[in-house]
Amino acid sequence: MDNLEEIIRANRLAFDSEEPSDEVWASIREQLQQPAAKKPSLWTISWVRFSVAAASTAFLMMAGTAAYHWGQVSGRAEMAATVKLEQINPQMAEVERYYTQMISLKEKQLSKYDLQKLGLQDENDQKMAELDSTYKQLKHELETNPNQQKVLDAMTRNLQMRMLLLSRQLEVLQSISKQSSQENENIVL
């Protein structure tokens, strides 16, 4: 640093002789004399934020109302379909109740096993979803189809297929469980 200070002191006159031109100073004066660009006021910024918040709130309220209304309409349609099945064919309504109870029982028994670990969960869910979708279509078709007996037979077969699928899965899982417990007994002996 001492060396730098010595150079500056020795050449001070040379450094002071260099000054900005008059054009540079004139340009600076002009910029200072021009009025500053008007900045947006706090009120304007607040108004924009308020407008965005109000629009967002309105959108969310409309979406929520639509979702609620859609859920209500969907629930009423399913309830109406059940009532219609009892009105169209009380015997089929009884068959549906029986199989629904049996399917729930089988699903409860299946829940004791770790289907995800065995790699059966996704396949089971997919097959049951397909059968459920087909059943809903058949139920809807029952109202408009002139040959109701064919539709009722197809609905019964669909319910039976669900029961058969769940029963087979239970049998397989029970046999696997028996084999593994026998293997564990053999290892212990």
TrEMBL record:
<protein>
    <recommendedName>
        <fullName>Anti-sigma factor</fullName>
    </recommendedName>
</protein>
